[in-house]
Amino acid sequence: MRKIYNIGVLGAGSWGTTIANLLSINGHNVVLYVREDELFKEIKKTRINNIYLNGIKLSERLKFSQDVNETANKKDIIVSAIPVKFLRDTLKKISCNIEGVVISLSKGIENETFCRPSQIIGKTLGIEIDRVAALSGPNFAKEVALKLPTATVIASTNKETAILTQNAFSNSYFRVYTSNDIAGVEICGALKNIMAIASGVSDGLNLGDNARASLITRGLSEISRLGLKLGAKQETFMGLAGIGDLMLTATGSLSRNRTVGLRIAKGEKIKVILESMKMVPEGVNTTKSVYNLSKEKNIDMPITNEIYKILYEGKKPFDALKDLMNRPLKAENYLL
Ligand SMILES: NC(=O)c1ccc[n+]([C@@H]2O[C@H](COP(=O)([O-])OP(=O)(O)OC[C@H]3O[C@@H](n4cnc5c(N)ncnc54)[C@H](O)[C@@H]3O)[C@@H](O)[C@H]2O)c1
Ligand SMILES: O=P(O)(O)OC[C@H](O)CO
Fold this sequence. Notes:
Shape: globular
Number of domains: 2
Strand content: 5-15%
Oligomer: single chain
Bound molecules: nicotinamide-adenine-dinucleotide, SN-glycerol-3-phosphate
Subcellular location: Cytoplasm
Order of helices and strands: EHEHEHEHEHEHEHEHHHHHHHH
Main location: cytoplasm
Distance between the termini: 49 Å
CATH architecture of the largest domain: 3-Layer(aba) Sandwich
Keywords: Cytoplasm, Lipid biosynthesis, Lipid metabolism, NAD, NADP, Nucleotide-binding, Oxidoreductase, Phospholipid biosynthesis, Phospholipid metabolism
EC number: 1.1.1.94
CATH topology of the largest domain: Rossmann fold
Radius of gyration: 19 Å
Structural class: alpha/beta
Number of strands: 8
CATH superfamily of the largest domain: NAD(P)-binding Rossmann-like Domain
Mean pLDDT: 97
Largest sheet: 8 strands, mixed
């Protein structure tokens, strides 16, 4: 018999809604915080999130709230599904005591502080890091919402927190592994979005399958170099949150980040692309964080550099390609 928890999910975007629905299907008592007034009215009436997860009828047991404190109060598990740039300010609105564990679903690195989502959560809510976990892996929301078979990783410095979450989230179509490398899992989840933009640019320019596979491989090398410097464990890069999510996001047609790259390659301006998207492609902000962080840590990240220049300095994608290909030749070393 599964233990039943009281759960609050912060953020009714595509992933927050999907996970709230999954947890409700798993038998838990779940409240989903919906920020937008119109969406709140609509979702209560139709049980469909027509902005972020259209076409999926949500569980009859799922409850909705527009109050972050009501959502977070007296919960065994709080799930945070807020894009990183809005995370700190949203959490600051919570004034109730946090009694249980907090699970982060966000994939990004904060611009000014270089904090990972779990660090923002720990500091802002004033809770110890062993009550925080991060869930990450090759997980398109739509496929999980359609109950297609999916695997993922939940990472925490505290084994009990990871196992509690593993049991609460797992079901016949969602298989959750545990990890103790929260830094590695979050770094992989954030940085694969930069490589997905790069892969989208490459595909949008029709550079071919060789180029995409090369980008994924050298992208993983870049992610690993920075990740190891920041305390990640090497084996995490070869796992679901690492190569698993990188492969998915750099090749999958549902990726918002890859779509940004495809549209950039077709000549659209990043400002116009972002204005046209309700969903948040985290890789755009994360590119800025990682570009600056790599300079501070003196880590060579050529793909990230070029994506930064394309997104923030208006560099032409073909010029970025030329500069990437014309760097000094070297021996292949996964970490160089
Ligand atoms: N969608 C996926 O397939 C998926 C899978 C795994 C992880 N993630 C990650 O989960 C996190 C949440 O993404 P998502 O896909 O659920 O969201 P989304 O991109 O579908 O929706 C955007 C979300 O941002 C919120 N938002 C917009 N403006 C805001 C503001 N000013 N203040 C506070 N919130 C604001 C919206 O209410 C909505 O919840 C992201 O870090 C994402 O990378 C997404
Ligand atoms: O649609 P994306 O590019 O934000 O990617 C979604 C998930 O992170 C894939 O695991």
